Structures are given as C-alpha cells and as structure tokens.
Automatic annotation (TrEMBL):
Start and end residues of each Cation efflux protein transmembrane domain: 9-202
Gene3D superfamilies named in the record: Cation efflux protein transmembrane domain, Cation efflux protein, cytoplasmic domain
Membrane-related topology note: Multi-pass membrane protein
Domain Cation efflux protein cytoplasmic: 211-285
UniProt KW Transmembrane helix keyword: yes
Location in or out of the cell: Membrane
Listed name of the protein: Cation diffusion facilitator family transporter
Keyword Iron-sulfur among UniProt keywords: no
TM segment ranges: 7-29, 41-59, 79-101, 113-130
Pfam hit, one: ZT_dimer
Signal peptide as annotated in the record: none
Keywords of this entry: Membrane, Transmembrane, Transmembrane helix, Transport
Entry-linked InterPro entries: Cation_efflux, Cation_efflux_CTD, Cation_efflux_CTD_sf, Cation_efflux_TM, Cation_efflux_TMD_sf, CDF_Transporter
Length: 326
C-alpha cells in the first residue's frame, strides 16, 4: 500500500473515532454548538473516503483516454470535500437560527468540555502530520485533508471556550451564538476549498509553482538558452506539465538543438522536487536578441552583449521574445 493511501486511511479512521466521541458529547449535553462540531465530523469521514479513492485513481498510469494521467482527480477530491464542508456549514447555521426560536438548555457541560478537548488535540496533531506529509509528497488531497482536520480542531477549541463561558456565566444563549459562529467559519472554509479546486480544474496559474520553476531556470541557466517565453504550467496531481518556447542560436544543427533541449529538461527535473513533463518549441535567435545573448564566439553576432534580462514569473509566460518588452 502506498504512503498516500496509508495517510488517508489514518485520516479516515481518526475521523470515524472522533465523530463517535463528538456525538456522544452532543447526546450528553444537548448542545447546539457541539452538534455543529459533530456534524462537521460526518463531512470529515465522507471526504476522507472520497480522498482515498482519488489517491488510488491519481496513481494510475497514463493511458489512451488520459494522456496526461489521472492526477486532476485530486482537484475533484478537494471540490467534494469543500462542497461537503460548505453544506455542513449551511446546515449548522440553519439549526442555529432555529435554536433562537426554540432554545434548549445545555447540561453536563464539563463532561462535554473534556470530550471535545480530547478530539481537538487529536485532530490538530493528525492534521499537522497530514499537512507536512502531504507537502513532502506533493499530494494536494492529503494536504487538504490535513487542513480540514485542523479547521475542525480550531472550531472545537472555540467551542471549548464557549462551553466554559456557559458553565461560569449560565448564559444559555452563548451556545447558539457559538453554533452560528462555528457555522460561519466552516462555511467560509468550505468556500476557500471550493475556490482552490475550481482554480485547478480551470488550469489557473499557480503562482508558487511558477516561481519555483523560474527559480530553477535562473539557477541552471545556460548561455545558449538565449530566451524562454510563452511558458505555461499545468499541475496534474503530483506531476507538472510545462510547455514553452526556447530560443537558441539559429546556426545550431538539429542534433545540437535536441541536445540543448534534453539538457534543459534534465536541468529542470533535477531542480524541481516533482516530475515534470516538458513540451518545448525551439525558436531561432534574431539580430535583435544579440544585446542580451551571452553566447561566446558567436559567428553571426550583430551587436555586443550589453544587457542581462532576468527571468521572472512576469516575462516568461509572455508570448514574445524578450527584446520586444525589454
């Protein structure tokens, strides 16, 4: 079994155990706020189940129907998880408003306090572990699951503080206010996850990934990589797919062009900590490139090298050679 599957199973079994504890706390206390927390735990369990399937599917090799692999299913996983969180937040808010009309007293507060505290500690610890392992493994699904558990833990801590206030003040309306606050927080968290998944499905540029690629290219830059432009990057699960135009001396033979492109691909894959598939269009240099071309002993140089053009996330994606905007 892969590391990713083991991590998701850890999240799933943790979610089931904590969900049972939270519902136990709800039945003991009859607290709307605790019900809100328990309802979100159902989301954790369902989301982890779907995440397990998405990890399985994303690991499948490329095939004729999926030439880029199955990695995009991770964005669907985040979408489902975010959607479920959003729905849970909405239900919690509705129940909170109902509680304003039909209030009920909270009982056995301290028993609920200790049960919810224990779930918050476990959730935060497991969530932090999943976040770190997800970042290391470049798995958006695991990282999102870890963030979700920590959101759950933070909402539980707010709930604990509220239960203590109810205990010392005997103000029952605090329970309803807490429920509404937690519902709003959960709703906002679900929205952010939905936004992230839609961005990925729509191939929105990932600023952090683009910056990482640019940093690697600058650190590995060769003289005959005269110009890189029209760079586009897509993420499919734990892999990147990148295409760009690479300007080289126009007198290079086809064999030499092939060697330079191979070196470019190797350099990028060595510098990044995730596999990258590249599609590179070879461009010939032009006389206007000479002033920023650092190729030594060039037989066709029209003017001296006078300017170094730094590669940035702004100029590399543009579909133009750099002399046009330099």
């Amino acid at each position: 079994m892969s590391k990713e599957k083991r991590l998701i199973l850890l999240s799933l079994f943790t979610g089931i155990a904590l969900m049972l504890v939270k519902f136990m706390a709800y039945f003991i206390t009859e607290s709307n706020a605790i019900f809100s927390d328990a309802a979100e735990s159902i989301v954790n369990v369902v989301a982890s189940s779907f995440a397990f399937y998405s990890i399985y599917l994303s690991a499948r090799p490329k095939d004729e129907n999926h030439p880029y692999g199955h990695g995009k299913v991770e964005f669907f996983s985040i979408f489902v998880e975010g959607g479920l969180i959003f729905i849970a937040g909405s239900i919690i808010l509705i129940k909170s408003f109902y509680a304003l009309i039909v209030p009920n007293a909270v009982s056995n507060i301290m028993e609920g306090f200790w049960l919810i505290l224990s779930t918050a500690i476990v959730n935060f610890g497991v969530g932090e572990y999943l976040k770190r392992r997800g970042a290391t493994l470049r798995s958006m699904t695991i990282e999102a699951d870890g963030k979700h558990l920590q959101i759950d833990a933070i909402s539980s801590l707010g709930l604990i503080a509220g239960l203590y206030l109810i205990k010392i003040t005997q103000m029952q309306w605090i329970d309803t206010a807490l429920s509404a606050g937690l519902g709003s927080y959960i709703l906002w968290s679900g929205y952010k996850m939905l936004r992230k998944s839609i961005s990925g499905l729509m191939d929105e540029s990932d600023v952090a990934v683009v910056q990482e690629v640019v940093d690697v290219l600058n650190s590995k830059r060769q003289a005959d990589w005269i110009d890189v432009h029209n760079m586009r990057i897509q993420r499919y699960g734990q892999e990147l797919h990148m295409d760009c135009h690479l300007t080289m001396p126009k007198y290079y033979t086809l064999t030499k062009v092939h060697d330079v492109i191979s070196d470019f691909e190797q350099s990028l894959n060595e510098g990044l900590d995730m596999p990258t598939e590249l599609f590179i269009h070879a461009d010939p240099c032009m006389p206007q490139c000479c002033h920023y071309c650092n190729v030594k002993d060039c037989p066709i140089r029209a003017e001296e090298y006078t300017k170094h053009i730094a590669w940035t996330p702004v100029n590399l994606p543009k579909n133009m050679k750099h002399f046009r905007d330099s």
